[in-house]
Amino acid sequence: MRLTTAAAAVILLATQASVVRADDIVRHKIPNSSFPISLAVEVPAGKTTVYLSGVVPSVADEKADKNSVAAYGDTTAQTVSVFKSINTTLESLHLKMSDVIKMQVFLVGDPAKGGKMDFAGFMAGYTQFFGTAAQPNLPSRSVVQVAGLANSGFLVEIEVVAIRP
Which of 17, 50, 116, 121 is the right S-S partner for 75, CB 3.0 to 4.6 Å? Predict the structure, then answer.
């Protein structure tokens, strides 16, 4: 009986040691800044990391040429579309947008903006999902302009990494 009790205690302690709460993730703010990203994110050992493949926007205008920006909308519309799709995928994996810790954003230069990426348009979409009162958790993030994506109508592609709480 004594051996069984000791074994149970060891198993219980090992199980408790491996449980890491979501609030154990540390998100470092950018000093003296209100910019809505984390300077860095620390994830304790033992967390499950989930990598989502790049997501592109859904068709917004069925009548438009599927290889045109008109089919998918401007940068803001495409960003919102992509984040809605990411949210749906995360939910299917029993995760939330608040579990996202890292993001890589690829923006194509918008023809309507002289071939420059529409960072303001991206931020207008991004801030609907991150840094809100309902979802204050901020990922670390990179945004780069790329020459093109798989479809000439895509202006936005986003990859995220999430941590399972």
Answer: 121
What is the pTM for the complete model shown?
Answer: 0.85
Assign domain 20-164 to a CATH class: alpha beta
Residue spans per domain, the chain: 20-164
Relative to beta strand 100-108, strand 140-146 is parallel
> End-to-end distance of the chain based on CA atoms, in angstroms?
36
Q: Write out the two tokens for 152.
A: 């000439």
pLDDT tens per residue, range 93-134: 999 999 999 999 999 999 999 999 999 999 999 999 999 999
Sort 12 into a burial class: Cβ within 10 Å, 0-12 / 13-18 / 19+.
Answer: exposed
CA–CA gap between residue 165 and residue 156 (Å, rounded) = 28
